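Lecture notes, unit on binding sites. The following record was shown on slide 14. It pairs a sequence with nicotinamide-adenine-dinucleotide.
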Amino acid sequence: MKVAIIGVGSVGSAVATAVKNTGLVHEIVLFDRDGVRARAAAEDLGHAASFGFDVKISAANNYRTIRGSDIVIIAAGANQKPGQTRTDLLQNNADVIRDIIPRVMANVDPKRVILIIVTNPLDVMVMLAQKLSSLPPARVIGTGTMLDSARLRTILARGLAVSPQSIHSYVLGEHGDSSVIDWSGITIGGLSIEDFCRQMKVPLSATTRSAIENHVRNAAYEIIRGRGATWDGIGAAVADLLKCIVNDEHRILTVSIVAGTGANVLAMSLPRVVGANGVVATLNPKMSPAESAALRRSGKIIQKNFSRL
Ligand code: NAD
């Protein structure tokens, strides 16, 4: 399994480390428009590899070096500065995707390659990458709200004193400020969250829910304020997605792919079954009318941003 990572800043480096540590790949190629940075990252990661899985890690001087890649991860582009939203990155990062995708496609096998998109604003970049690559939507996969869902699961687990492994909970829609928590679909040990809280005698007030929503939605802003960028969480999310693909696990992940036709074309996160060929199915989540309306609003925001390109 050969993996190429395009963009080796904070996120690309964390992704490379996390992917290496899965032990599932034999070769990682790093490409960045800043060649010095890519070579330094490959050198550093190569030293780390000597302590664990024997992965061949190299820096690419040009796109020909990514030939033979099974999966290409796009983590290039500007990141949010304190106070910026993901949407503020729209035009800049659209240019980055326009620069990268044709070069990637000239050097991979379009019949089998899977693109994983990490660059923000995520859903719009998925739409653009899918359009430019002409790949089937199932094989242009954005990490979407995987990280937001992980944040929600962690917060609920801590608050309810139960393992995150026992919680099924999803954040859907935009990977951004309009993301929607699917409270109606949460199950813990087979119970709805309300039934679980009743049985465990843990109060779940509207104030608590709203505090959880704010925590999930503002987590990235807090991390950026504290350490300048976010990288560990997304590195782990990408490695988890890659593991699901390589092992053909058919796990349900909240990833973002393009769906719909004509004026309804849209990429946003829904619960999707992921395997060796990418996304194999999308589930219709159980939502209240208010949650469904919020999801539709979120979709409209993504479409509006895409139309600005
Ligand atoms: P960074 O500034 O540390 O690194 C970006 C890298 O991209 C730089 O090394 C730069 O040289 C490279 N680059 C820029 N344009 C390029 C091009 N045309 N070709 C090749 N390389 C190019 O930024 P970062 O913190 O690593 O963030 C990268 C992206 O990931 C941002 O868009 C950020 O918002 C996004 N991100 C997404 C998630 C998510 O959940 N999807 C989470 C965190 C960050």
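Take-home: The first helix runs from residue 10 to 20.
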